[in-house]
Amino acid sequence: MNKNITVLRGDGIGPEIVAEALKVLDRVCEKYGHTFTYTDVDIGGCSIDKYGVPITDEGMAKCKAADSVLLGAVGGPKWDSCPPAIRPEKALLAVRKELGLFANLRPTKLFPQLADSSPLKQEIVGNGIDLLIVRELTGGVYFGPKKTEEVNGELVATDIMPYSEHEIERIGRVAFETARKRGKRLASVDKANVLDTSRLWRKTMHRLAEEYPDVELSDILVDNTAMQLIKNPTQFDVLVTENMFGDILSDEASMLTGSIGMMPSASLSEGTLGMYEPIHGSAPDIAGLNIANPLGTILSGAMMLRYSFDMAEEADTIEAAVNAVLDAGYRTGDIMQEGCTKVSCSDMGDLVAERI
Ligand code: NAD
Q1: Which residue of the set 32, 130, 191, 347 is catalytic?
Q2: Which domains are seen in the chain, by residue range?
Q3: Angle formed by the axes of helices 295-307 and 345-354, nearest 10°
Q4: 32, 149, 335, 344: least CB-packed within 10 angstroms?
Q5: How far, in Å, is the centroid of ligand 1 from the Cα of 280?
């Protein structure tokens, strides 16, 4: 299969970790007879330095024209004082909007080999955590009408949280389809005891459930979800929720693994185009030292194969290779444990690629 991938290396450790993900994808191509063509586009601070904007129109067009987009990370202290309109993160919001990326998939996986990195007790973590949060990314209170006005001599601020049935239905479908490919259990997270948007959310999820009889749907209130993620995270398979709840819960969930460098993510559009990136930032404190953990980016590459290219076997192969490298005791500094072998960012990429 031939695929065009637009590569956004970005700032800080972005170029280092993306290079390792491409190394692994190239090895997948060799093994399975695919051809991936990479087109580089500057994004974030490096684009501001060259062009005065965090992404150019031409760069954006290359993202839209691709089969998929792979991102490292953007930002750093050098650009912290840029005016809000041209800050590095602006480019990420623009790409999400232009590509219509409405579904954010965030797996939280605690590899059993790294159980000691979790802030949770061993008896709670059990044989490892493996859950996935599907977050609606382009609706709700972050995008609804907002205003601050003076009422009776004081300031009053209002943010409205609108959700239409079709917005809920399309994220619901992504969640049901995703649950179908995993453990077939879907928890729909809402606040239906208080919010109208949540009541519509729940009603829509139940209507969709009739089309997915093989997926077991349950409802859970967002406050209880926040508690259960700490108390008993292994009960979950897939969770689906609206934008703000998902923002908060996915950050909470990512911390259960204690290793930010391991976590991949995917943002999907209505077609097969998606953007794939590790959840961490550009880590300016370790940039250029060849010590960053590239596994989150490598696993984002695996998600790209699974969700945009329908290459489940190839994705499984990458995930198995990561597992094998951890089993063999190789660790980058951030996940280093006693008795293991410390390796650099590029060594880690080589070790995974060798096992493809
Ligand atoms: P960060 O995620 O970059 O770093 C937090 C800590 O985790 C740092 O100590 C860093 O060294 C470590 N870390 C992160 N990724 C690692 C990896 N792969 N391997 C080993 N250690 C890793 O968060 P921050 O320091 O708050 O932000 C730094 C910059 O990144 C800021 O400019 C911020 O705006 C930007 N940022 C970008 C994105 C993105 O591009 N999607 C996301 C978050 C933050």
Answers
A1: 191
A2: 1-100+264-356 (3.40.718.10), 119-257 (3.40.718.10)
A3: 40
A4: 149
A5: 5
